[in-house]
Design goal:
By secondary structure, the chain is mostly helical. It contains 10 helices and no strands. The termini are far apart.
Length: 224
Protein backbone atom coordinates (compact mmCIF):
# COMPACT_ATOMS: atom_id res chain seq x y z
CA UNK A 1 0.00 0.00 0.00
CA UNK A 2 2.83 2.36 0.88
CA UNK A 3 4.54 1.53 -2.42
CA UNK A 4 1.33 2.36 -4.35
CA UNK A 5 1.12 5.81 -2.69
CA UNK A 6 4.74 6.53 -3.50
CA UNK A 7 4.21 5.56 -7.12
CA UNK A 8 1.16 7.85 -7.40
CA UNK A 9 3.16 10.82 -5.98
CA UNK A 10 6.01 10.27 -8.49
CA UNK A 11 3.56 10.12 -11.41
CA UNK A 12 1.92 13.39 -10.25
CA UNK A 13 5.27 15.14 -10.01
CA UNK A 14 6.33 13.97 -13.47
CA UNK A 15 3.11 15.25 -15.00
CA UNK A 16 3.40 18.65 -13.31
CA UNK A 17 6.99 19.29 -14.54
CA UNK A 18 6.06 20.21 -18.15
CA UNK A 19 3.34 22.52 -16.86
CA UNK A 20 5.84 24.34 -14.66
CA UNK A 21 8.32 24.56 -17.54
CA UNK A 22 5.68 26.02 -19.85
CA UNK A 23 4.73 28.54 -17.17
CA UNK A 24 8.37 29.64 -16.83
CA UNK A 25 8.71 29.98 -20.62
CA UNK A 26 5.53 32.02 -20.86
CA UNK A 27 6.73 34.37 -18.13
CA UNK A 28 10.08 34.86 -19.88
CA UNK A 29 8.41 35.62 -23.22
CA UNK A 30 6.20 38.22 -21.58
CA UNK A 31 9.22 40.14 -20.26
CA UNK A 32 9.99 42.97 -22.73
CA UNK A 33 13.53 43.13 -24.16
CA UNK A 34 15.53 46.20 -23.19
CA UNK A 35 15.05 48.98 -25.78
CA UNK A 36 18.14 49.84 -27.89
CA UNK A 37 19.94 53.05 -26.97
CA UNK A 38 18.82 55.77 -29.41
CA UNK A 39 21.49 57.36 -31.59
CA UNK A 40 22.53 60.83 -30.43
CA UNK A 41 20.87 63.71 -32.26
CA UNK A 42 23.06 65.48 -34.85
CA UNK A 43 24.74 68.62 -33.56
CA UNK A 44 22.93 71.85 -34.39
CA UNK A 45 24.72 74.55 -36.36
CA UNK A 46 24.91 76.65 -33.20
CA UNK A 47 26.62 73.79 -31.37
CA UNK A 48 29.14 73.34 -34.19
CA UNK A 49 29.87 77.08 -34.32
CA UNK A 50 30.31 77.34 -30.55
CA UNK A 51 32.37 74.14 -30.43
CA UNK A 52 34.58 73.31 -33.40
CA UNK A 53 34.73 76.83 -34.85
CA UNK A 54 34.74 79.08 -31.79
CA UNK A 55 38.36 78.52 -30.79
CA UNK A 56 39.62 80.35 -33.88
CA UNK A 57 36.67 82.43 -35.09
CA UNK A 58 34.52 82.99 -31.97
CA UNK A 59 31.02 81.53 -31.82
CA UNK A 60 29.54 84.47 -33.76
CA UNK A 61 32.28 84.46 -36.40
CA UNK A 62 33.96 87.67 -35.21
CA UNK A 63 37.52 86.47 -34.82
CA UNK A 64 39.75 88.56 -32.57
CA UNK A 65 42.87 86.75 -33.78
CA UNK A 66 44.32 88.75 -36.69
CA UNK A 67 45.54 85.65 -38.55
CA UNK A 68 42.07 84.07 -38.50
CA UNK A 69 39.36 85.54 -40.71
CA UNK A 70 36.21 87.29 -39.57
CA UNK A 71 33.36 85.13 -40.87
CA UNK A 72 30.40 87.11 -39.58
CA UNK A 73 28.49 88.74 -42.42
CA UNK A 74 30.37 86.83 -45.12
CA UNK A 75 28.34 85.45 -48.02
CA UNK A 76 26.87 82.04 -47.16
CA UNK A 77 27.78 80.54 -50.53
CA UNK A 78 31.40 81.63 -50.22
CA UNK A 79 31.83 80.17 -46.72
CA UNK A 80 30.23 76.88 -47.76
CA UNK A 81 32.48 76.64 -50.80
CA UNK A 82 35.63 77.27 -48.75
CA UNK A 83 34.64 74.65 -46.18
CA UNK A 84 34.10 72.12 -48.96
CA UNK A 85 37.43 73.05 -50.55
CA UNK A 86 39.22 72.40 -47.24
CA UNK A 87 37.83 68.86 -47.04
CA UNK A 88 39.66 65.90 -48.54
CA UNK A 89 37.38 63.48 -50.42
CA UNK A 90 37.95 60.04 -51.98
CA UNK A 91 41.65 60.10 -51.10
CA UNK A 92 42.11 63.35 -53.03
CA UNK A 93 43.94 66.27 -51.50
CA UNK A 94 41.78 69.28 -50.55
CA UNK A 95 41.40 72.04 -53.12
CA UNK A 96 42.45 74.57 -50.46
CA UNK A 97 45.50 73.68 -48.41
CA UNK A 98 45.30 74.05 -44.61
CA UNK A 99 46.14 71.20 -42.25
CA UNK A 100 44.23 72.91 -39.44
CA UNK A 101 41.05 73.55 -41.40
CA UNK A 102 41.10 70.14 -43.08
CA UNK A 103 41.04 68.51 -39.65
CA UNK A 104 38.24 70.84 -38.50
CA UNK A 105 35.95 70.01 -41.42
CA UNK A 106 36.73 66.29 -41.57
CA UNK A 107 33.60 65.32 -39.63
CA UNK A 108 31.29 67.90 -41.22
CA UNK A 109 28.68 66.85 -43.76
CA UNK A 110 27.80 68.95 -46.82
CA UNK A 111 24.60 69.94 -45.02
CA UNK A 112 26.61 71.06 -41.96
CA UNK A 113 28.76 73.26 -44.21
CA UNK A 114 25.74 74.77 -45.90
CA UNK A 115 24.13 75.56 -42.55
CA UNK A 116 27.37 77.06 -41.20
CA UNK A 117 27.54 79.36 -44.22
CA UNK A 118 23.97 80.49 -43.61
CA UNK A 119 24.62 80.89 -39.88
CA UNK A 120 27.67 83.13 -40.25
CA UNK A 121 26.07 85.18 -43.02
CA UNK A 122 23.36 86.21 -40.54
CA UNK A 123 25.79 87.35 -37.83
CA UNK A 124 26.57 91.02 -37.36
CA UNK A 125 30.13 91.90 -38.33
CA UNK A 126 32.50 93.46 -35.84
CA UNK A 127 35.19 94.84 -38.17
CA UNK A 128 38.90 95.01 -37.44
CA UNK A 129 39.84 97.99 -35.26
CA UNK A 130 43.62 98.05 -35.72
CA UNK A 131 44.98 101.54 -36.63
CA UNK A 132 47.31 101.95 -39.62
CA UNK A 133 49.64 104.54 -41.10
CA UNK A 134 47.73 107.22 -43.03
CA UNK A 135 50.10 107.20 -46.01
CA UNK A 136 49.79 103.44 -46.27
CA UNK A 137 46.01 103.71 -46.13
CA UNK A 138 45.99 106.36 -48.88
CA UNK A 139 48.04 104.08 -51.16
CA UNK A 140 45.72 101.20 -50.38
CA UNK A 141 42.64 103.28 -51.12
CA UNK A 142 43.99 104.25 -54.55
CA UNK A 143 44.83 100.65 -55.38
CA UNK A 144 41.52 99.29 -54.16
CA UNK A 145 39.35 101.74 -56.08
CA UNK A 146 41.56 102.53 -59.07
CA UNK A 147 44.18 99.81 -59.39
CA UNK A 148 47.60 100.46 -60.90
CA UNK A 149 47.19 101.07 -64.62
CA UNK A 150 50.94 101.26 -65.24
CA UNK A 151 51.50 97.71 -63.97
CA UNK A 152 48.21 96.29 -65.20
CA UNK A 153 46.70 95.85 -61.75
CA UNK A 154 42.89 96.13 -61.88
CA UNK A 155 40.92 97.82 -59.11
CA UNK A 156 39.93 95.46 -56.30
CA UNK A 157 36.53 97.15 -56.40
CA UNK A 158 35.81 95.68 -59.83
CA UNK A 159 35.28 92.23 -58.22
CA UNK A 160 34.74 92.97 -54.54
CA UNK A 161 32.57 96.08 -54.89
CA UNK A 162 33.28 99.73 -54.07
CA UNK A 163 32.35 99.19 -50.43
CA UNK A 164 33.98 95.76 -50.11
CA UNK A 165 30.70 93.84 -50.02
CA UNK A 166 31.82 91.29 -52.64
CA UNK A 167 29.84 89.37 -55.24
CA UNK A 168 28.76 85.86 -54.18
CA UNK A 169 29.66 83.08 -54.53
CA UNK A 170 33.14 83.66 -55.99
CA UNK A 171 34.10 87.11 -54.71
CA UNK A 172 33.99 87.41 -50.91
CA UNK A 173 33.11 90.44 -48.85
CA UNK A 174 36.35 92.08 -47.69
CA UNK A 175 35.32 95.16 -45.72
CA UNK A 176 36.67 95.14 -42.16
CA UNK A 177 38.73 91.97 -42.59
CA UNK A 178 41.92 91.65 -40.52
CA UNK A 179 44.98 93.11 -42.26
CA UNK A 180 47.17 90.12 -41.37
CA UNK A 181 44.70 87.58 -42.73
CA UNK A 182 44.20 89.46 -45.99
CA UNK A 183 47.94 89.92 -46.46
CA UNK A 184 48.56 86.23 -45.84
CA UNK A 185 45.97 85.19 -48.41
CA UNK A 186 47.39 87.57 -51.02
CA UNK A 187 50.83 86.04 -50.52
CA UNK A 188 49.44 82.50 -50.74
CA UNK A 189 47.71 83.35 -54.02
CA UNK A 190 50.88 85.02 -55.30
CA UNK A 191 53.07 81.98 -54.54
CA UNK A 192 50.50 79.49 -55.81
CA UNK A 193 50.06 77.92 -52.38
CA UNK A 194 46.38 78.77 -52.45
CA UNK A 195 45.12 77.15 -55.60
CA UNK A 196 41.35 77.44 -55.24
CA UNK A 197 39.70 80.58 -56.66
CA UNK A 198 43.04 81.63 -58.14
CA UNK A 199 42.02 82.11 -61.78
CA UNK A 200 42.12 85.89 -61.39
CA UNK A 201 43.95 86.44 -58.12
CA UNK A 202 47.27 84.88 -59.04
CA UNK A 203 47.51 86.88 -62.27
CA UNK A 204 46.76 90.13 -60.44
CA UNK A 205 49.15 89.53 -57.56
CA UNK A 206 52.17 88.77 -59.71
CA UNK A 207 51.96 92.43 -60.77
CA UNK A 208 51.73 93.87 -57.26
CA UNK A 209 54.67 94.81 -55.05
CA UNK A 210 54.92 93.76 -51.43
CA UNK A 211 54.21 97.33 -50.33
CA UNK A 212 51.10 97.50 -52.50
CA UNK A 213 49.75 94.27 -51.01
CA UNK A 214 50.44 95.59 -47.52
CA UNK A 215 48.71 98.89 -48.33
CA UNK A 216 45.56 97.39 -49.80
CA UNK A 217 45.30 94.89 -46.92
CA UNK A 218 45.49 97.75 -44.41
CA UNK A 219 42.88 99.78 -46.30
CA UNK A 220 40.45 96.83 -46.52
CA UNK A 221 40.53 96.55 -42.72
CA UNK A 222 39.24 100.14 -42.44
CA UNK A 223 36.35 99.71 -44.88
CA UNK A 224 32.87 99.68 -43.46
Amino acid sequence: MKMIKTTIVLIALSLSAPILAETDDDTASDTPASAPTPAPAPATVEEIASGVCAGCHNADGNSVIPMNPILAGQHAEYITKQLMDFKATDNETPKRNSAVMSSMVAALTPDDMKKLGEYYAKQKTTPSQVPADEKLLEMGKILYHGGNIEHGVPACASCHGPNGSGIPPHYPALAGQHTEYTMTQLNLFNMGDRSNDNTVMQKVLTRMSGQEKKAVSAYIATMR
